[in-house]
Amino acid sequence: MLDTAGQRVWTEVDLDAVAHNLRQVRELMQGTKIMGIVKDDAYGHGAVECTRVLEKNGVDFFGVATIGEALELRQAGIRSDILILGWTDPDQAALLAEHDLIQTVVDVPYARELNARGLKLRTHVKADTGMNRIGISWQPQKKDLDGFFEVYAMKNLSNEGIFSHYPVSDDLGEDAMAFTGRQTTMFQELVSILKENGIDPGLVHIQNSYGILNYGDMGFDYCRPGLLYMGVTSNDAIPVVNDLDFIPALSLRTRVEMVKDLQPGQTVSYGRHHEVQQPETIASLAIGYGDGLPRLISNKDLTVLVNGQEARLVGNICMDQCMADVTGLDVKPGDVVTLIGEDGRKRVTVDAITRCSESINNETFCRLTKRVPRFFTGTGDPDAVRKQAADQEDADGGH
Ligand SMILES: *Cc1c(COP(=O)(O)O)cnc(C)c1O
């Protein structure tokens, strides 16, 4: 059992579930290697721990957003290749070189600046096939072939890969699928042109989580799943082509602070948006938007589990606290409240919070703040979770 005694709020990350989810992705992607995207502290799941689990299960390449995130992995002793997916100030070139990090080429002027530092730097070139965020343009409106040629010719840049990104791979509508298809074709065309011109483009990769779920193994060198190890997609309501057998890895829990009985006419929390109609028992919970719970979920009747019993949040979410209607339930101060995860036979999902806050699960995870300590369970064994469930069923069947 986890020792969460004394904690007011915490997350539990099941590393066996992370390993199980990785295996689901690998079975779908077969020939394509996996670059583990562990940016923003692995979407709040713990970058160092998740990277170790992925490494232990055969992942040899990692992607982060910033040089700070890359250095955190290096300081934890992770020696695998690390690609920084976003911009790094060229003034940090010495750190990139010293820690053997791979930097994304954001555009041609950026590459010139990096090259001018006079250090041997490892890079992957970003091709912009339609996201229009970063990358050298390779779109019908502008195909900057000279830009790619110039970057690949730079003496100090070791361009070991080329990659692009899909903005609508989550959308199975006709237009979106046509757009994604054109991006893929254009990207493949770019890679061919480089090769025809005697340039080795290096490792080729384009698929993110939805690119993986909806387009499967496309034969590129790597794919770049992030959210999938966490065992969820961005939104449960979005259909996908390959529905994998995922296990959500993260649970979010807090505790009951106090319990009180209120009479009709009394109101709860800022703004007085919840007015008591029948006598109600209200529990105050030790979590608020300062912990990352979106304030937008206020007054949306979100279900939480108090001691494994369903209750609904009422009134505005405060910075450090919120309130639940626990009328008729057995509840006392110190009891555990689950906002994401299982308690007993019941489960509440991150998706419910996400839907009430009109967001995506990626953001709901990334909102969790440093005030929320993280506890890990499991050892990164992909077989452990299903085995535990089967053992539990045997035990249940036995009486
Ligand atoms: C964040 C990111 C990913 C991973 O995205 P998911 O949707 O979590 O799989 C992949 N590639 C790039 C460039 C990213 O920024």
UniProtKB/TrEMBL annotation:
Binding site for substrate: 133, 319
Enzyme active site: 39, 270
Keyword Protein biosynthesis: no
EC number: 5.1.1.1
Biological process according to GO: D-alanine biosynthetic process
Keywords recorded for this protein, A-Z: Isomerase, Pyridoxal phosphate
Keyword Cell wall biogenesis/degradation applies: no
InterPro entries recorded: Ala_racemase, Ala_racemase/Decarboxylase_C, Ala_racemase_C, Ala_racemase_N, Ala_racemase_pyridoxalP-BS, PLP-binding_barrel
GO cellular component, one term: cytosol
Cofactor(s) recorded in Swiss-Prot or TrEMBL: pyridoxal 5'-phosphate
Superkingdom per UniProt: Bacteria
PANTHER family per the UniProt record, alphabetical: ALANINE RACEMASE (PTHR30511), ALANINE RACEMASE, CATABOLIC-RELATED (PTHR30511:SF0)
Function: Catalyzes the interconversion of L-alanine and D-alanine. May also act on other amino acids.
Similarity remark: Belongs to the alanine racemase family.
Name of protein: Alanine racemase
